[in-house]
Amino acid sequence: MHWFVVLPDCVAAQTIPRMPNGATLLASHASGRPWLVGRIPADQCTVLTAGDQQLAVFGQSPGTAGHLARLVRRPRRPEDLTFSDETLPGSSHLLLSVNGHVRVQGTASGLRRVYRTTWRGLTVAADRADVLAELTGVELDDRWLAASLLTSELPHPLSVLSPWQRIEAVAPGSALLMTPDGRARVHKWWKLPAPERSLADGAPVVREALSAAVSARVNTLGAGQPLGSDLSGGVDSTSLCFLAHQAGARLVTMTVQLRDPSNDDVLWADRAARDLPLITRLVLRPQALPAQYAALEQASSVTDAPSLLLRSRAVLNACAHQYARHQVSVHLAGHGGDEALQAPPSYLRDLLRHHPLLVLRHSRGHEARYRWPLPRMLRGLADGRTYARWLADEARILQSPDFASPLFGWGPPLRMAPWATPRAVQAVASLLEDAAHQAQPLAPEHSQHHALQRIHNASQLYRLMRQDLTEPWIALPYLDDHVLEACLAVRPDERGTPWRYKPLLAAALDGIVPTELLNRTTKASSGADFYQGLHQHRRRLLGLVSQSQLAQRGLIDPAPLRAALLTPRSHTVQALENTLAVEYWLAHLPPRPYPARA
Fold first, then answer.
1. Which element (helix H / strand E) includes 379?
2. How many angstroms separate the CA atoms of 283 and 300, rounded?
3. C-alpha torsion 504→507→508→511, nearest 10
4. Cα–Cα distance between 199 and 206 in angstroms, integer?
5. What is the block-wise mean pLDDT of the chain (598 residues), using blocks of 10 residues?
6. Is 282 strand, coil or helix?
């Protein structure tokens, strides 16, 4: 388990109780007081000292002190702590200590998060919520656990909440500024780009940003060291393989052949491999593939929130084992590509104000693609509610069918799992209603807000994946800040057109990736593997349900949950997967070695 804690530069901070086992002092303030404590691999930690100024980078870094030093803009006043516009390639936490003041920031995507809490009036920060929970002794938050029963992710601003009381994340794209007296405030440092570039103008920028992101990973490797890269057959991971090959990496690729007979990923991976010379190719065939939910039988790390990767973790472990046999310490994955490269259909509402004729044409395309009834589409296009109003309205229909929510809203319909108790529904409704009093969207446009919310949610999913699977290190270039900025600056109607699949990626990598591969229009399913895994591990899953901690807290009725597990249906699959992940996480939380209440 890798983690770090950030302490303010004050005497009182030294009274904070001891850290979890294995903690070491990573860096001190110029005063000599502890600043950074934790467990971080040496190759993921760079600390520089220049007089009274301390800079720490956790993550991939260019490795030169001069480059890192140029990141810091010397403050005229201690409260003016800031970094220059030049940011590191890759994905990093950046931390700065100057004259008793501290700045802590993660990434714009939320892949690298910062959590905060208060201990006896002092602000303490960390990259994991569970470390702060152990440090301060706080209890689990039943309202958060109730919200985990939503069939979609928590909406903004509730997405910054954690499973523990009084511990929450700093919003992605914002920094935590800590003062010498132990207080703190939040400063927004990242600005969502205006979506004004055409596809033709934006594609070269995306190409440059994505190429730099991949090259940054290649450059962190030692001479001759291999770079792993998932060759799933999907366009996102396939594109990373070609970029890494262009950057001079010695590639070891991984293809997973699922059991679902409708899954054609491996056919596309085979085609891509023919155009990637001198690679070492690994293929996990169905007979060597663990079943979904086989991880129930394996020991695992504990994540700081329930992870939906529970169902596929055994497969990921098998891939990691194969990579390790070929000395791969870093591997590229295309996760986040869907969220960064595409625009949700809610762009139609934004387009209506400026290009009504274009909306008509695009609406017909989406109607044919998704088979949406025309009256429901028209109702959605006419929906002019504010974000706060949308949240409040969704709070009142948490148990209604999805069609009760108009299309093209500020996010997907917010619905509770069928087995949620009235107590759980009321808890989530109160969370949403409280948030609605002062909630502001992440962007003025529906599509940009929805796109950024999807990026934040995906980043949380893959942040948990990296907690659980620490070797080899999983690099996710599509979630790098520069890549996101380049993608989100392209007009949503050109990113989300119904007539082409990921047109932005196809235009950006034209000439690097073979046209045949970029023009793939299918997206494979793993449904058959999921149902087979449920059946194979049903007894263990039923054991989880029979000892349900959510039921003990009065949040679910186990009878309908058990029925859904015995006879899963398409309309309950997402809720079932979510709830099983939460139950597994609760059942495997380690006991706390000491209570340390504030």
1. helix 374-381
2. 24
3. 150
4. 10
5. 92 73 86 92 84 84 54 55 60 90 94 94 95 92 97 94 97 94 93 95 98 92 91 94 96 91 87 91 92 83 90 92 95 96 94 88 89 89 95 97 92 96 98 94 95 97 92 94 96 93 96 93 78 92 96 97 93 93 93 49
6. strand
